[in-house]
């Protein structure tokens, strides 16, 4: 039977007009003291807000979201490394440290609580329920690579793993490939979102073959060892399922070290990356003592 712990959470609200009190939820912060976990997920886009509040400043809003997300990632890492007797901090202390209460447009809600066996998954579930549930995608809009990445990115953020990734170029004499999210543990680990939500089967097949060729070009040359994690998005049109399965088969046959994660495997992806990062950090700490 899994062990559960108490957690406390607050919702971050964007209050455009403090007089009218109208607001939209834009983030969630969660603290589980016994698990030494603190994390937050903040809205990366402003489309829904700008429709409701046309006069908002989108660039300022995005900057604030990035700042709050980064600060909670830092606090989460600090909390995970603290000794159990270091002193328990409350959700109020953490949120005030990141964003003090004032009369600005960003406000914390009242505190909620519960019990969980997995604080990271609970944070993701609260974010989906409190922040993302009212977002609607136009039926004719295709999933982009950014959309696929946001889906997988949230599990890295909730586990405080995103901080370990950085951009890197894998290059050989006559070719190179840029990866936005990589980390190194012996070989280079590269995350690559790929959307197969395209218009027709030929486009899906062509995209899969294009990635096959890119990776084959680097693995057949004198490149540093690297492993690619393909994070793939399925077509929204069920009639393209066969083409999508063929694309997965093409990716699976490519040379070199690689692994494919579909959108419904996001939890498995998060666990695998967390285990690998944890093992790497443990070996680094052991080597330093």
Task: Give an overview in words.
- There is one protein chain.
- This protein has 289 residues and is an alpha+beta fold.
- The chain folds into 2 domains: 5-136, no CATH class; 162-288, Trna Endonuclease, Chain: A, domain 1 (3-Layer(aba) Sandwich).
- It is built from 8 helices and 10 strands.
- Strand 6 (166-172) and strand 7 (175-185) form a beta hairpin.
- The relative contact order is 0.12.
* Count of distinct strands: 10
Whole-angstrom Rg? 21 Å
The amount of helix comes to 40-55%
Largest sheet: 5 strands, antiparallel
How many domains is the backbone divided into? 2
Q: What pattern of helices and strands is seen along the backbone? A: EEEHHHEEHHEEEHEHEH
**How many helices in DSSP terms?**
8
Distance between the termini: 36 Å
Strand content: 25-35%
Apparent shape: globular
User: Structural class of the secondary elements?
Assistant: alpha+beta
Mean pLDDT: 86
Brief synopsis:
The chain has 289 residues and is of the alpha+beta class. It has 8 helices and 10 strands.
